[in-house]
Amino acid sequence: MKVTRAELAGRALDMFRKHGFDAVSVNDIAGSFNVTKGSFYHYFKSKDDILLDYYNNLLLNSNVLLDQILAGPATITNKVKTLTDIAVNATITLGPDLLQRLLVLYLTQESDLTILQEGGYLVNYLAALRTLFVQGKEQGQWAGELSGEDLYWNYIHDLLGLLSEWSVKNGSFDLKSAASKMIALLPAKA
């Protein structure tokens, strides 16, 4: 039986979501199509490659979207909210188990994460958020003593903490609601 890369990846992602990333082996994925592990390795180096391909495809046209958001007429606070919504929605789509694995790959640098390379989505996403916080401070839209750079780093740490907590708690709370509460804490001037 001939199986395509897309078919293998789709089935693997379904299996990951149903049984958990660690519980699914390459043998399980190949066996679901009655093909050998060699068929799997023809397309992927590891299960991690499936996850990374999926995440990169999920964000495929997002760099264009980032440019549109930055250039748009919305307030800086609303632009930050939109960028936060993008991260939250991508996280929910990925799911807690797969997000945990992606975080492990990032933190241990076990993989060549193209999303973290220059021009990669995550680098551009973080740069867009940083730009908004710095511009907001320069334009007098943020209250308080913190610089735009410090506001940015505080926000990123809060957002990553929230996403990580959601993942570790296996998606047991409403991530969108929690993110909305976090956005409400931004020091926007009235």
TrEMBL record:
Supply one GO molecular-function term: DNA binding
Record carries keyword RNA-binding = no
The UniProt entry, under Gene3D superfamilies, shows: Tetracycline Repressor, domain 2
Q: Which PROSITE patterns match?
A: HTH_TETR_1, HTH_TETR_2
DNA-binding region range list: 25-44
Q: Which residues form the HTH tetR-type domain?
A: 2-62
Name of the featured protein: HTH tetR-type domain-containing protein
